[in-house]
Amino acid sequence: MPPDLNRSVLFPPVNWNISGTLNPDYQCGQANRVSPTAFPDSSGLDSDSLALASWQVVCNISRPKGASPKCCVSFSAFYNDSVVPCKTCACGCPARTSGPTCNATAATLLLPPEALLVPFDNRTAKALAWAEIKHYNVPSPLPCGDYCGVSINWHVLTNYNKGWSARVTLFNWREDQFADWFLAVRMDKASAGYEQMYSFNGTAMGDNTIFMQGRPGLNYLNGEVNGNNPDSDPRVPGKQQSVISFTKTKTPGIDIIAGDGYPSKVYFNGEECSMPDMIPANWAPRSGGIGLVTLLLLVLAVALVISEP
After folding, report:
1. 181-238: per-residue pLDDT in tens?
2. Under a CB-based contact definition with an 8 Å cutoff, are residues 163 and 243 in contact?
3. Are 251 and 245 in contact (CB under 8 A)?
4. What family, per the record (predicted)?
5. Taking phi first (over 0 means left), then psi (-120 to 50 degrees means alpha), and beta for anything else, what does residue 54 get?
6. Strand partners for 196
């Protein structure tokens, strides 16, 4: 094409860039000439044709200084009925010009599990009722939301003598969907015990990382939609969920409840997500029955009653 009429002197496009709805920023290098690429013949014949010329462009993930995450993580567990939600302003707090004021520095309020299924703007009543039941302190003004388009809940599901399991749930609070999404979690002390995933494809990789993606036909993370009654019901996020099982035979001494059962880093579509500052506390007796201290106090009380004249 004019002005490039010389087939031996070709100039590739420049200033390459990759952008997406949630993907991290990329820095792309210059195009480098490589061997011509082979591709199927356009006429349908069982043969390959060679491109006139081919170039290769390498793009690396980068994050500008001060950039906020675009996804966040919440923690929950079978032994605690409160959820540790995403951090306040986990993905940055937008400047408010109108509407109620919120506290951008206050710690987020612990939530009942069902509150994870509704948008942040619809959680206030549930969060305040839960704080009253649990006698939690409530700051004034209330903490701001996380402002993340995608959130991931990591739930420690079971813990027994020879193994344990977790449930990972992806929530999409955006209106657009993610096709061929992928997730990576770094388990510093538990990755060696990874066994299998039940609804996702999972692979144990190096650096204590487990890579997950949707199975064929189930690899779409749909966007947020209206509830059954748009006038009264909150909007419903797109959701994908799977249970993941681990064995303890390859990780002796692992303490799931103390923190070894929670990821230290989570990545969604290559973007590193904001992590909570705490894990669910183990306030209940691990045996599920009466605690040893409680039992001793009962025995002591009975002994004192019997010894009275």
Report:
1. 999 999 999 999 999 999 999 999 989 999 999 998 888 899 998 887 766 788 899 9
2. no
3. no
4. Belongs to the COBRA family.
5. beta
6. 245
Cβ of 11: how many Cβ atoms within 10 Å?
8
- Beta-strand ranges (E) seen in 222-264 are 238-247
Six-digit token string for 68: 């906020």
pLDDT score for 61: 79
Angle among Cα 267, 269, 274 to the nearest 5 degrees reads: 35
Alpha helices in the chain (DSSP H): 124-134, 292-307
State the sign of the Cα–Cα–Cα–Cα dihedral 155, 202, 182, 264: positive
- Give the residue-averaged pLDDT of 235-262: 94
Rounded to an integer, what distance in angstroms lies between the CA atom of residue 22 and that of residue 149?
8
Phi and psi dihedrals of 297, rounded to 5? -65, -40
Are 73 and 154 contacting, i.e. CB atoms less than 8 angstroms apart? Answer: yes
The whole-number pLDDT of residue 98 equals 62
**pTM for the model:** 0.78
Cα-Cα-Cα-Cα torsion 124, 127, 130, 136, nearest 10 degrees, comes to -120
Pairing label, strands 271-272, 182-186: unpaired
